[in-house]
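ingest -> validate -> predict -> emit
validate: passed (alphabet ok, no gaps, 255 aa)
predict: started
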Amino acid sequence: MRRSVSCSECCTRHELHLRYSSAFADGIELHLPLSASVLSVPADPAELRRSLNVVAMRQAGYFTAAQAVELGYSYQAQKHHVDHGNWTRVDRGLFRLPDWPTRPDDTYVLWRLWSRDRATVSHESALVVHDLGEVNPPRTHLTVPPGFRARHPAVRLHFAVLPVEDIEDREGYRVTTAERTLLDAAAGETTQEQLDAAVSDALTQGLLSPLRACRQTFARLLADLVRVVWRSVGLCAVSPIAAGVARRWLDVPAA
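emit:
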């Protein structure tokens, strides 16, 4: 026999319907228990899992909360998967599929996602990626554009706009080229002994042309010298014309 519905139950269902309709019309996600939120349950969980696996496979098993939302997982559903061990939360808004096989450079994929795809592995961390010298930086070195505001104690940030020719694409992250890496390391905190070993390894591996490296180094030193001279007379930056002449003369790309 069909159970009759009381007046109070009708009112409650009507209120919930209005609440859901209003909330979703305004783009608001209701943080209700999974059992109460029918709309947060995916229509095809198997298809969602397959889509998530495709994304995670390209990113060493990692994915962001925003990527999960784009696939169809609400923030409420994300909490459910973390609480039940289906996902591992590695940082705020960052997850990883459990039992994913690890590789030495997985951490660089993580930091790319953390930076919202704005960071490039550089300096001593890039030396590690290129297997140049013997360095063991306590923090991951990343070059990010000026104005980047996120901070993390495990990251050492450097601010610069990197030319396209100074960047290499790796599986899930970006890294500065061997030549750019050596120049950055020389201008940074790398010791002379570590730098000598890194340059020797780069020459042995055929990653560095001695003539081109010398020309690039001289061009950057010349640009720095011009910048100092112009600042001494009250200007705040190197003359674009002077820098351009130096680059054309030495046949090197813009830094």
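DSSP finds ten helices and eight strands in the chain.
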